[in-house]
């Protein structure tokens, strides 16, 4: 197990130095944790997208186009204000 070379340095095997074995289970724990995190984030994203109302849908490109079609007569600014064009 322990060896001393001609210069007086002690060489110890990896398992003896760590005082533990390395079965490699950590990679499985990391992989399972990564998969669970991806699934949890996907569920949160999908449920949020499915439950959005009309106010939140106006923030999307298709929601903005639909809102523009519905509110053709109403404007949000100076555009179309006839009192300023005189």
Indicate the topology.
Layout: E1 3-4, E2 10-11, H1 14-18, H2 26-50, H3 54-57, H4 61-70
Antiparallel strand pairs: 1-2
Secondary structural class? mainly alpha
Taking the alpha carbons of the first and last residues, their distance comes to: 98 Å
Poorly predicted ranges (pLDDT <50, ≥5 residues)? none
Oligomer: single chain
Rg, Å, rounded: 33 Å
Q: What count of helical segments does DSSP give?
A: 4
Total number of β-strand segments? Answer: 2
Average pLDDT across residues?
Answer: 74
Order of helices and strands: EEHHHH
Major pleated sheet: 2 strands, antiparallel
* Strand order within the widest beta sheet: 1-2
Shape: rod-shaped
Question: What fraction of the residues are assigned to beta strands by DSSP?
Answer: under 5%
Helix content: 40-55%
Task: Write a concise synopsis of the structure shown.
With 86 residues, the protein is mainly α. It is 51% helix and 5% strand.
Describe the structure.
The chain has helices at residues 14-18, 26-50, 54-57, 61-70; strands at 3-4, 10-11. Strand 1 and strand 2 form a beta hairpin. It has a two-stranded antiparallel sheet with strand order 1-2. It has 86 residues and is mainly α. It starts with a strand and ends in a 16-residue tail after the last helix. The protein is rod-shaped and about 90 Å long. The chain contains four helices and two strands.
